Amino acid sequence: xxxxxxxxxxxxxxxxxxxxxxxxxxxxxxxxxxxxxxxxxxxxxxxxxxxxxxxxxxxxxxxxxxxxxxxxxxxxxxxxxxxxxxxxxxxxxxxxxxxxxxxxxxxxxxxxxxxxxxxxxxxxxxxxxxxxxxxxxxxxxxxxxxxxxxxxxxxxxxxxxxxxx
Length: 165
Hints:
Strand content: 15-25%
CATH class: Alpha Beta
Low-confidence stretches: none
Helix content: 25-40%
Distance between the termini: 51 Å
Mean pLDDT: 90
CATH architecture: 2-Layer Sandwich
């Protein structure tokens, strides 16, 4: 059963711990620019949104790679970059619909989330539980539950409005 990173942006406090532990885990430096997960801040809404590779089933990055350096590892349930083959053309960066593929100008390589080989450190260190590593089926169930809650609240609000008329 495939596991995915499930990100609940409503829980994210913007502490950026996930970025820090990711950079340290992968590159040994405390530099969020080298992180595979990025926190996007939406000032007007007061929201922080963690952005990471969604390990797409029909991954645009994989499909556009001219040298086939990006492939799906079915056993680990992730999309991987073979750095021995990658030519650094950045086509994958351009087509990623989530902006999760990045380019490191120092190493001259693309990089993305590799799920820390099945033990994502961003999940482990997220104190508020905004990032979880769960079975893909649980994500769908959780989204259905939240949608039902929103619809229920909207229905109650509508009934309250009608009662006031």
